Amino acid sequence: MTTPYCYSTTYILDKAHFDECYTQSVKPDPTLKPYYKAMGFGLIGIALIFADVSLYLAYFFVGLGVIEALNVKYNKAWWLMRQMMSKAANNEVTLIVDEQGIHTKSQYVNAQILWTDIYRIVQTDKGFLITHKTGTSYISNRSLDDACIGFIQTKI
């Protein structure tokens, strides 16, 4: 009789971890498409300047366009800043990979992703993107050993 597989490790949710999560999960769009909303707000604001409405409303829409453009331009930096300001930042996380699924436990989170709830596992250069019924999660290879990486690859 074989024993069920179980792997457990701990890691810290530091800036390097969040940076890797973002880099491995977000694919940048080099076209102007992400800026369309910013351009729309700006054009509406400019059109309202020449209309018979309050200039405050017009400048509000121009300001929204500028903020949206900055959001697109500095998306990674803003995302990293929000993650580092969260209460989970710089805390220890325990990751458990076993026959049932993937469990993450910390002071603030106790989550479990069952293998039956996983739709897709994509191996990236530095880890795994796991798509499940509640979203997409990322697991870094830095916190896994070769046996665990092989176990997750069998689930692909």
UniProtKB/TrEMBL annotation:
Keyword Membrane: yes
InterPro entries reported in the protein's UniProt record: YcxB-like_C
Pfam families: YcxB
Residue stretches making up the YcxB-like C-terminal domain: 97-154
Keywords: Membrane, Transmembrane, Transmembrane helix
Transmembrane domains' residue ranges: 38-67
Biological source species: Shewanella oneidensis (strain ATCC 700550 / JCM 31522 / CIP 106686 / LMG 19005 / NCIMB 14063 / MR-1)
Protein name (Swiss-Prot/TrEMBL): YcxB-like C-terminal domain-containing protein
Keyword flag Transmembrane helix: yes
